[in-house]
Design brief:
By secondary structure, the protein is an alpha+beta fold. It is built from 5 helices and 5 strands. Helix 3 runs antiparallel to helix 4 and helix 4 packs antiparallel against helix 5.
Amino acid sequence: MSGENTTTAESAKCARCTECADCAAKGGGREAAPPARRGFGLTANGYGSLSRQFRPTPAGARLARRTVVRRLAEWGFGPTTDASCSVALVVAELAANAVSHGRLRGRNFHVRVDYEGPASRFRIEVSDAVLGRVPEQPELPDDDQETGRGLFLVEAVATRWGWESRNPIGKTVWAEAAAARPVRTV
């Protein structure tokens, strides 16, 4: 019965123990930890992956950056760490380019972020549906121009970057950024 009264001592016991008789009788007890979410966190070997589609709008680009920052925090890279800031910058710039230059009506853009712990690096990929506009070697624009610095920033932060055509349509712009494995604190 869910309306049972419990004493403070029993509640404290159940909060620490999910296998006592009281918890088993209550189907795991209301204090039992929720089941672990599948597919989240780094593997024991230090790998992590995020893959998701977003609408090709400025709001979709912002959501992509925020989603990646949240996932990196789950992997142990806090939002103010160098790794998180670098990956967020790359995702923001590539997503903005996908929205501005790779937008095709009815097609979302795709973001994939992989962390390879043994190699101490992130691989960031942003795919869109337009192959006709491919990234060029970045050049710093004139001081009076408000746009055109995205790939220049990506090149400054990434260890390497490039693009490849995507089958059946579109392209994927990718970048790699170095990052040491996060330190787990208990």
